[in-house]
Amino acid sequence: MSDFETVIGLEVHVQLKTDSKIFCSCSTAFENPPNSNICPICCGYPGVLPVFNKKALELAVRVSLALDCAINEYIYFERKNYFYPDLPKNYQISQYKQPLAENGFIELINGSKIGVERVHLEEDAGKLIHAATASLVDYNRTGIPLLEIVSRPDIRSALEAVEYLTSLKQILQYIGASDCDMEKGSLRCDANISLREKGDKNLGTKVEIKNMNSFKGIRDALLFEEKRQKKSILEGKKILQETRLWDVDNSKTIVMRSKEEAHDYRYFPEPDLLDFAVTEDLINLERSGLPELPKDKKERFIKQYCLADGDIKVLLSALWLADFFEEAVANFNQPKQIFNWLTGPFLEQVNGLDGGFKTVGLCPAKFAKIVEYFCSDKLNNLAAKKVLAKAIVSNRDIDEIIAEEGLAQMSDSDDLTEFIHLVIEEFPKPVEEYILGKETTIQFLVGQVMKRTKGKANPKIVKSLLIDALSKLK
Ligand SMILES: [Zn+2]
Question: How remote is the CA of residue 52 from the centroid of ligand 1, in Å?
Answer without folding.
Answer: 12
